[in-house]
Write a structure and sequence with these properties.
about 450 residues; alpha/beta; Urease, subunit C, domain 1; TIM Barrel; 9-stranded mixed β-sheet; 8-stranded parallel β-sheet; 14 helices; 19 strands; globular; binds N-(aminocarbonyl)-beta-alanine; binds zinc ion
Length: about 450
């Protein structure tokens, strides 16, 4: 099968040109003006933007968490990602404390194998680092193609590891050529504040926010960065939300340290005032939404090169699941739905409002995730030889986000009624038209597991 996309404005992290793209089978073969080639299918992309397929490196699909499962499974999650222009996601495997990493990998394969519509990979979350799990790391980096290891400095009693385990894991991961991801908030402080608020009868969603003040994130980020510096293990802070935490990263640059930073779309465009609403549980996530001044910090951080990735931390729960915490914020399953909206919201709120350039948009939504997580240039760009993961985007089409029209398996939208400028029109995944005319043309099982290489490229 061959496809010729004519006359689109092709945006990569470092170029901007009107040209044609020629695809055969799964791969981009040629890019150029007025290509003298014939194809089985031609797409006229005049007046449209063309981006590499988006990569969301932070999603939680069909994940057991806080007594329930996130409501998008691998099929609904990756399909709704495709509708929104995200052709690949990286999901998290969670080790059970006391059990092996391999057991967790087997369990996650059981839910994901054959069920993905879009491409995917995994990070391995190490929640219990000991002599036995230490021996398993090399198998992941060398055989499984899973080269990033997630750690939690919070969720005490469930997922959190202590600093002793963190240092040990960092030494091993560095030896094996991998990368450590971290949820960097101070779990002990948060645990104390949750207990205090509950004892005082302060149980509404607002107290979720007040139990995780900025300092808990700033402190843990600084501590993680220090351990990464000491061990020399590459570090990536997931879902960074605030000025204090970004300043810890900024300070590290003064000793010539490089730390990778991801923020998420919600932290750029929404704030903690939402917790005062009746339905504030919809935005209960960790870390919580912050303040307007933090949004400014994050946009600036993107432009300063301190924040390299914009993800979602997609972890949806239906309203009925959120109601598990109707009388106690600490029982509300943490997370919100966004996998489908990241590319359009970032374009509309970022590019369209003049906060970031088109090239920066592609860099943080497509290219940097591929580079940092060992998939570039196969993924994350538009170039001859790369996978034909391509998004054709109308920059002018206006539409409204709503639970009535979204494809995610959740019965509300965290962005209900948001006016968005810019719409994903057509999506190619490895050379196949996956999304066209508001319809998904690929089935579950089409999505492939992507084995990742060890080297995190400096971005
Ligand atoms: O609230 C969140 N973020 N839920 C998913 C788990 C995590 O911490 O990333
Ligand atoms: Zn987290
Ligand atoms: Zn997460």
């Amino acid at each position: 099968m061959s496809i010729l996309i004519r006359n689109g404005r092709i945006i990569t992290a470092d170029a901007d040109q009107v040209a044609d793209i020629y695809v055969t089978d799964e791969t981009i073969r040629a890019i150029g003006k007025d290509l003298d080639l014939k194809a089985d299918k031609e797409i006229d992309a005049s007046g449209k933007l063309i981006f590499p397929g988006g990569i969301d490196p932070h999603v939680h699909l069909d994940m057991p968490f806080m007594g329930t499962f996130s409501s998008d499974n691998y099929e609904t999650g990756t399909r709704s990602a495709l509708f929104g222009g995200t052709t690949m996601v990286i999901d998290f495997i969670l080790q059970k404390q006391g059990k092996s990493l391999q057991a967790a990998l087997d369990e996650w394969k059981g839910r994901s194998d054959g069920n993905c519509v879009g491409d995917y990979s995994f990070h391995m979350a190490v929640t219990d680092f000991n002599d036995s799990t230490k021996k398993e790391i090399k198998n992941f980096t060398d055989k499984e193609g899973i080269t990033s290891f997630k750690t939690f400095m919070a969720y005490k009693g469930a997922l959190m590891i202590d600093d002793r385990q963190m240092i040990g894991l960092m030494e091993e991961v560095k030896k094996c050529g991998g990368l450590i991801n971290v949820h960097a908030t101070n779990g002990d402080m948060i645990d104390y504040l949750i207990a205090k608020h509950r004892a005082e009868g302060k149980l509404s969603p607002l107290y979720h926010y007040l139990s995780q003040p900025e300092i808990t994130e700033a402190e843990a980020s600084e501590r993680f960065i220090a351990m990464s510096f000491y061990t020399g293990c590459p570090g990536y802070i997931v879902h960074l939300t605030c000025e204090g935490a970004l300043n810890a990263v900024r300070n590290a640059t003064k000793r010539n340290q490089k730390v990778f930073v991801e923020t998420c779309i919600q932290y750029l465009i929404t704030d903690a005032s939402l917790y005062e609403r009746e339905d504030g549980a919809k935005w209960v996530m960790s870390p919580p939404l912050r303040q307007k001044k933090d949004q400014e910090t994050l946009w600036a951080g993107i432009n300063q090169g301190l924040v390299q990735v914009v993800a979602t931390d997609h972890c949806p729960f239906k309203w009925e699941q959120k109601l598990m915490g109707k009388d106690d914020f600490s029982k509300i399953p943490n997370g919100h739905p966004a996998i489908e909206h990241r590319m359009e919201l970032l374009f509309s709120e970022g590019v369209n409002k003049g906060k970031i350039t088109l090239n920066k948009y592609v860099e943080v939504a497509c290219t940097n995730p591929a580079k940092i997580f060992g998939m570039f240039p196969r993924k994350g760009t538009i170039a001859a030889g790369s996978d034909a993961d391509i998004v054709i985007f109308d920059p002018n089409e206006k539409h409204k986000l709503s639970a009535k029209t979204h494809y995610m398996n959740v019965d509300y939208s965290a962005y209900e009624g948001w006016e968005v400028t810019g719409k994903v029109k057509t999506v190619l995944l490895r050379g196949k038209v996956a999304i066209e005319h508001n319809h998904c043309h690929v089935d579950k099982g089409f999505g492939k597991f992507v084995r990742r290489s060890k080297v995190a490229q400096i971005v």
